[in-house]
Amino acid sequence: MGILSWIVFGLIAGVLAKLLMPGDDPGGCVITILLGIGGAIVGGFIGTFLGFGTVDGFDFRSFLIAVGGAVLLLAGYRMIKKK
Fold it and tell me: What is the residue range of 55's domain?
């Protein structure tokens, strides 16, 4: 799956990450969606590195990896911004 697909996944993953981790984030929805895009890309690289196979299509496993990466980046962003 190309980088454009991860961006689309990231948009959706960012929204879902915000729903899974509600709260008052600095930056609002735009930052959350950007973190979702970044999280989807990072999740795709980590998933491939850890041996989940190549992430090359729109399937449920790829979507979970994208959402997981988005939640991870959102949690990291919150920890950095709190300090």
Answer: 3-82
Could you count the other beta carbons within 10 Å of the beta carbon of residue 27? 12
In sequence order, which residues have a C-beta less than 8 Å from that of residue 13 and are 6 or more positions away? 36, 37, 39, 40, 43, 63, 66, 67, 69, 70
Answer for the pair 1, 58: CB distance below 8 angstroms, yes or no.
yes
Give the integer Cα–Cα distance in Å for 16 and 71.
9
* pTM, rounded to two decimals: 0.71
The per-residue pLDDT for range 62-72, each reduced to its tens digit, is 777 777 777 88
Considering its fold, how many domains does the chain have in total? 1
Q: Of 58, 61, 29, which Cα lies nearest the Cα of 47? A: 61
Over residues 11-62, the pLDDT tens digits come to: 887 778 777 777 766 667 777 778 777 877 777 778 778 877 555 666 777 7
Q: How far apart are CA 57 and CA 47, in angstroms?
A: 13
